[in-house]
Specification:
Length: about 210
């Protein structure tokens, strides 16, 4: 799926248009958000190389994910329209499960370290007052892996809404497609169960 698909979902009105500060003043804050996430990812990789258990790495990484990502906005899009149609306790449970599964995926994907580094290589405006920040995961002797972060403003800071692998493959659009069968079959409660079960499988017995 392309970046345009995720942006089309947003343009369809599933999220409100955020209030946008002047770009010149907010861009450093967007880069700071991505830089904090990058450092946490590198810490995950180093901790895995030191054989720290997966559940311990998740507990350390989860607060960073909650702070740098706008997970509620992402889940509102990925689980639309079921998220907004559900009662507040169900939404909270789903959001907790979504955060846990999302953090577990990072623990699983970034599970080794061999001197890699992550560099912010550029930024560009995106529709609806948002911003794309491009990063490269640099590996010795290999082609860098491009990850682009779609951020939306929140007051005087920016938070990540979507991640584009190779600059084009939208995590948010993929999640929206992935969640629909479960949501149609059992609503938000069924999605919560699936997300928690998936996190448990990822973490295994660690």
């Amino acid at each position: 799926m392309r970046a345009a698909l995720a942006l089309a979902v947003l343009a369809a009105g599933l999220l409100p248009v955020p209030a946008v500060a002047q770009q010149a003043g907010t861009t450093p804050a967007a880069r700071a958000t991505v830089a904090r996430l990058n450092e946490a990812i590198l810490s995950l990789m180093r901790e895995a190389a030191g054989r720290e258990p997966a559940r311990a790495r998740l507990q350390r990484f989860l607060p960073v994910m909650l702070d740098t990502f706008d997970l509620e906005a992402a889940l509102r899009v990925a689980a639309a329209p079921y998220f907004d149609q559900s009662a507040e306790p169900e939404r909270r449970q789903a959001l907790d499960a979504f955060a846990r599964r999302s953090a577990a995926q990072y623990v699983d994907r970034f599970d080794s370290y061999d001197g890699q580094r992550i560099e912010i290589v550029g930024e560009r405006p995106a529709p609806r007052g948002m911003l794309l920040v491009d990063t490269d995961l640099v590996r010795a002797g290999k082609t860098p892996v491009r990850l682009s972060y779609l951020l939306r403003p929140e007051g005087d800071r920016w938070r990540i809404l979507d991640v584009l692998a190779k600059g084009t493959v939208s995590q948010l659009a993929t999640q929206r497609s992935e969640f629909q069968n479960t949501l149609r079959g059992g609503g938000l409660a069924a999605l919560t169960r699936d997300l928690n079960s998936n996190a448990d499988r990822i973490l295994g017995g660690a």
